[in-house]
Input
Amino acid sequence: MPKRNSSISLRMLIAASLGPAALPAIDAVAQDYTTWRSYAGGAHSSQYSALDQINKSNVHRLEVAWKFPVGERSVLFNPIVVDGVMYVLARDNEIVALDAATGRELWAHPHDGPVTARGINYWESEDGKDKRLIYLNAGFVTALDATTGKTIESFGNGGRVDLRDALAADGRDISNVRPLMTNNPGRIFENLYIISLPAQGAGYQSTPGDVHAYDVVTGKLVWVFHSIPHPGEFGYDTWPEDAWRTAGGVHNWSEMTVDEKNGIVFVPFGSARYDFFGGDRAGDNLFANSLVALDARTGKRIWHQQLVHHDLWDYDLPQAPKLLTIRRDGKEIDVVAQASKQGYLFVFERLTGEPIWPIEERPVPKSDIPGEHASPTQPFPVKPPPFAVMSFTEDDINPFLPENEQQVLRERLRHSRNEGVFTPPSFEGSIGMPGHNGGANWGGSAVDPINGELYIVSKNLPVMLRAELTTDEPSARVIVGGVVTPEQAEAARKAAEAAAAEGAVRYAVPYDFMLSPSTGLTAIAPPWAHLTAYDLNTGEIKWRVVHGTVPELGENTGAHFPRGGPLVTAGGLVFVATASDRMFRAYDRDTGEVVWSYELPSGSEGIPATYEIDGKQYIALPVAASGLFPPRLPQASQRPEERAYLVFTLAEE
Output
C-alpha cells in the first residue's frame, strides 16, 4: 500500500546523523518541500522534494499514469499542483486546470498573445476564499480565479496591468515600446507579485529591466527597483552620466528566488545592452550581471555581488539563485548559490552577501577594439571548482564532422583570439567557451536545501564573436563565418581607429555558434552535456557524469544542447529529461549512476514536478520540445502528435 507520510524516511535519515533533538526542526523544514504550488517547487526555486515514496529501491516500477495532449505547440512549462488540481499551459496559449490524479480537464482559459512559457504563480488569501493564478500574458500582469478559470475583473484594469505604465510614470519614453513580455514567471511574496521587466531589443536601443512589485489583489504598483541606477542611487557612478534615460538591458530574463523566512528576493540580472560592445557605457555597469538581494516588501537593496564587470560576452546570470543550508566547522550557514554561463558557481552567506569561499579579481585579456572600456579584471571563485568545459582548441574539434568542415575550424581557431572565458570580441574573431548559450541555463540546477547539495546540468557550445563597424542598430544574429586573416583583421582595426578619431563609434558583433552546416552538430567534440553533483558543505564535486546522448552517434556523447532541468528527491534520486535522445532518466544521488530510464514519445525541456495525492506520489513533466539546436541526422525525429504532459507513478506490485 502507498505510504501516506512520505517524509518519515527523510526524518529518520536526518535524525540518525544529527541526533533526536533535531527531529522537530528537521520535520518542519522537510514539510516545506512536500508540495509543488509554484514554479520550480516553490518561491525557493529548489527543484527539490522531500517526498520519498518513489526511491532507488522501486523507481524501476515507474509507469505512465496519465497524459494530457498539448497540441502542436512546443511546451517547456513547469506544472503546478494545488489542492489536487494541476495547472498547465497547453494548446493555443490556454491555461488549463486538470485533476492531478487522473488528468481530467476541469476548465480552460484561452488568451490572445503569449503566456509566460516556463510557469505561473499561485496565491490565496489567509482565509482561503480568494485563490488566484498570477502571470504575464502579452506583457500584461494577469489574474485568474484559480477555481473557475475566469478573469478577476477587479484586478488592475479589467483583470490586467500593462508593465509599460510604470516605465512611463518613471519618465521613460514608451512611444515605441511594444508590450513587455518575458518568460520569467516572477515570484509571489505575501501579497506581492514580483517581476523584472524584459529588455526589449537586443541592440543599443533597449528598455531597462527594472524590478516591479504589484499588489496581487488590486494590481497596484507597490515598489520599483531600478536595475540601471537613477541619480542618487547606489551604482549610479558605474555608468556614464544620465545613462538611465537611454541605456537598456540589465534584466532578469531567467528566474528569481524568494527567501520567504527572511523576506528577501534574490534577483540574478542580465547583461547591459549592447551585449558585446560597451563603448557607450563606460564603467562596471551595476547592476548588470549581478546577484542582488532586495527587501521583498520595499524593493530596497540589501546587498549585491557583481559577477561580471562591464560585460562584453552576454554572460548574464542565467538561472535562479539556490537557497540551502551548509555545515562548516560544526556550524550551520544559510547560503545562496548562483551558477553562471562561464561554468562558475558562486556561494554567498544569505543575509550579508559575504562569499563563503574567496573570490579573486584576476587580470583578463585586454580589448583591442577602439572605443571599448573593458574591465582589466574579472571575479574568479577559488572554490567550488567549475562545472563546465572552459576551453576549445584544435584538439577538441568534433570528429563526427566532415573532414572539410574540420579543416575550416582548424583555420578559424588558428587565426582567432582564444584566451579563456573572458577573451573579448575582436576583429579576427574570438572564441567563447562555454559560450553565452553554454554553461548553465534556466531551470538547470536543483538543490537539497537541507543537506547542502547542488546538482547542475551543463552544456558545451563554443561561440565566435567578431566585431565589425556599423552605423545601423545591431541585432543578435547567428552567422556562418569564414576565416579572417591577420591582414584583414588589421585592416578592420585601422579603419576603426580612423573612425574613432573622428568621434564615437559603434560595432555590431555577430555571433556564430559554430554549428556544422551539414549536420547541425556543434564544433566541439563530445561529450556535450554533463550532470555535476556538488557537496557545498565542503565545496567539492561529489561526482560528474555525461548526461544523455545522441543515439545515432553512440553512447557517451552527452545530450546535444540540453534544456531539461533536474528534480532532486529525498528518495535518493535526480530526475532529468532530454530532447536530443527523448529520454527521462533517474540518477542515483550518491553515485551518478543511471538507475532508471524511459524513452519519451517526444523531446522534453523544462523542469519535472512531483506531488502527492491520497498517499500516492506522482512525477509530471512536459514532453513537447524539439530542442533548440537539434542535430540534423538521418534517424533523428520528433513526433509532434505525441506532445503532451506525462505523469508517472509507481505500478502496483
